[in-house]
Write a structure and sequence with these properties.
434 residues, alpha+beta, two-stranded parallel sheet, 65% helix
């Protein structure tokens, strides 16, 4: 009774330590990842930059409008363009201009229109990059979350086995004192206890290391105490993979890159076409040296403002004749890159199909393996209990007992690992199907 009470107290302390931590489920860990991940936030900022680039590309199609003004004071010799006179001597000249100009590219081989389409595709690519990043982070999180659950349960199972070994050692010591057990039996019990202590230390360190990596991925403070909670019912729920190739972000990324490649070919070819632009300007000027021819008095500012007005417009056509084969080589390079993207899509498509097929097979295999391991666990448990009973009545040796106990412990560890492997394979398929 005293031994049972000690075991109960230790278990209660272990449970209290666990409950003092913040428990997080798989869904909560995914939510924390989305909220805290700096990498994900940076990807979202890149989306905003791509959106700004779309606005800039759209604005480049519109006409430009600019206003300029100049006021110049000159001492000494200067040629006054307004009055058409050469001013000499020790006198000041005041000259002012103002103009409003506009320019519009009417045709440039569709370069600006294609540039706008390219920026829109870059925005879609940025969005798909974010989705791809989310999937990769969630897959990485799934691996760490599952390994932390495994290490936690292995640690708890090791603690339970250590308590049992302490209890068996105490029994052996009592039986040795009364002469019913030999020192060999006692040595077996001490060796089992030492191995269990080592196992507890190893599993505890593995759990703390995986927990630290989990908190680092979730961008959480090292001092924050958390404990992953194992999911419920994942062994009962069955899923059927329903993979759609067109929804895979890796394939969609390549599709958009291929579309962008087609635009790059068109943009490279635009160097063969002429550029047609329309320019217009409206302005006026003033000069302190412009005088009335009859009176010799300087014409007032507002009179000159109305008299000196100019309105001009012109159409400019420029046609490339020879550019050192630059346009030709740029077009050829764009076509080569496009062919490379087509090959890349074939390769990635084949790889993604293989990943899904392999994931489905591994999920089914993990379920079958779990069934076999659970059967072996029950058999080893029954075998240990039977040999323990024979050992208590003197019909089995201590070597047989501790061999059976070791096999039972190993099967328990394998059962824990196998159960969470089913969860990992299942959630992996769910992530791949998104």
């Amino acid at each position: 009774m005293k031994q049972l009470s000690i075991i109960s107290i230790v278990l209660l302390v272990f449970v209290d330590l666990c409950y003092a931590q913040k428990k997080i489920t798989w869904q909560q860990s995914v939510q924390i990842l989305h909220e805290n991940s700096i990498t994900l936030k940076q990807s979202e900022l890149r989306e905003q930059i791509s959106q700004n680039n779309v606005t800039i590309a759209r604005g480049s199609i519109y006409p430009n409008l600019a206003f300029s003004a100049n006021n110049q004071h000159t001492m000494g010799m200067v040629f006054d363009q307004v009055s058409g006179k050469l001013i000499t001597g020790n006198q000041w000249s005041n000259y002012a201009t103002g103009s409003l100009g506009t320019s519009l590219v009417i045709y440039q081989g569709g370069q600006k229109q294609n540039a706008l389409k390219a920026e829109k595709l870059n925005l879609e690519l940025a969005t798909l990059d974010t989705k791809k990043l989310i999937r990769e982070l969630e897959i990485q999180l799934l691996g760490l979350f599952t390994q932390t659950l495994i290490n936690h349960d292995l640690w708890a199972a090791g603690e339970s086995q250590l308590l049992l070994s302490k209890q068996l050692l105490h029994q052996e010591e009592v039986l040795v004192e009364v002469g019913k057990r030999t020192l060999i039996d006692l040595s077996q019990a001490k060796a089992k206890l030492a191995n269990d202590k080592l196992n507890v230390v190893s599993t505890k360190n593995a759990y703390e290391l995986s927990l630290m990596k989990l908190k680092q991925l979730l961008e959480m403070e090292e001092s924050e105490q958390i404990e992953p909670v194992p999911p419920k019912g994942f062994l009962v729920e069955q899923i059927q993979p329903n993979y759609h190739l067109e929804h895979d972000p890796y394939i969609r990324l390549l599709d958009k890159q291929i579309e962008l490649g087609e635009l790059k070919i068109k943009m490279a070819r635009s160097g063969y076409f002429p550029t047609i632009s329309l320019n217009g300007n409206y302005g006026t000027n003033y000069s302190s040296q412009r005088e009335n021819l009859l009176s010799g008095i300087t014409i007032p500012f507002w009179d000159q403002f109305n008299q000196n007005r100019t309105l001009s417009g012109n159409v400019v056509i420029s046609m490339p004749i020879f550019d050192g084969f630059r346009t030709k080589m740029n077009t050829r390079t764009a076509k080569i890159n496009q062919q490379s993207l087509n090959y890349e899509k074939e390769k990635i498509t084949r790889e993604r199909k293989q990943v899904i097929s392999q994931g489905a097979l591994e999920y089914v295999a993990s379920q079958e393996e779990l069934s076999a391991i659970e059967a072996a666990y029950e058999a080893n448990k029954a075998n240990y209990e039977a040999i323990k009973e024979r050992y208590n009545v003197g019909k089995s040796s201590s070597i047989d007992v501790y061999r059976a106990l070791t096999e039972f412990n190993i099967s328990e560890f394998r059962s824990i690992t196998s159960r969470y492997q089913v969860f990992y394979k299942k959630e992996m398929l769910v992530l791949l199907d998104q």
